[in-house]
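Hey L., structure's done. Input below.
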Amino acid sequence: VGQPVLIPGTMGTESYVAVGTTKAMDETWGSTCHGAGRVMSRTQALKANKGQELSKKLEKLSNYDFVLLDCPPAYNILSQNAMFFCDEAYIPVSTDVLGFNAVAKTKKVIEDFNYMFDNELTVTKIIPTMHDRRNKINKTILTELQNEYYEVVTDPININSKLREAPKAKKSIFAYAKYSRGAKDYKALVENIIYS
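Output:
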């Protein structure tokens, strides 16, 4: 109560400063407006920037056969920059219903991005992860992934306690437990990527 808040106008118009009242606090639970001070939409900002800053920086790399960019599962400026830079996309997916649904959405985002920016990013690997061979739904989803995306699905990365422990030890799975099932699965994935 009594806290100044900024109320934005539409893009390019004035914003207002207001002071909250007790009644406003009761009715709005102290929430504030989103987007205060923005002069252009996210889409306009992306078009103005073209999301190519990362490409400009990374194109100077040399003497590398592969450059892997690990992006969060969100359509944000980092992933947009990565999509401009990369030729191929690998989509890790948990072998559950939510993971399966996310693959189609991710592919659609990439297709829309390619169309909007005349880009040629290709999904070349779908990597089933956190796969539990004992779990019926995991087995069902893996089969559905293999049927739906048969040309790009890799062998699964099976659930393994060593994969969960390695980050805590600040080590790769190969340094932490190189003979574990998880290390063997990731070694097979690396070989698949390099030799395919």
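The chain has a mean pLDDT of 83. The first strand starts at residue 4 and ends at 7.

-- N.
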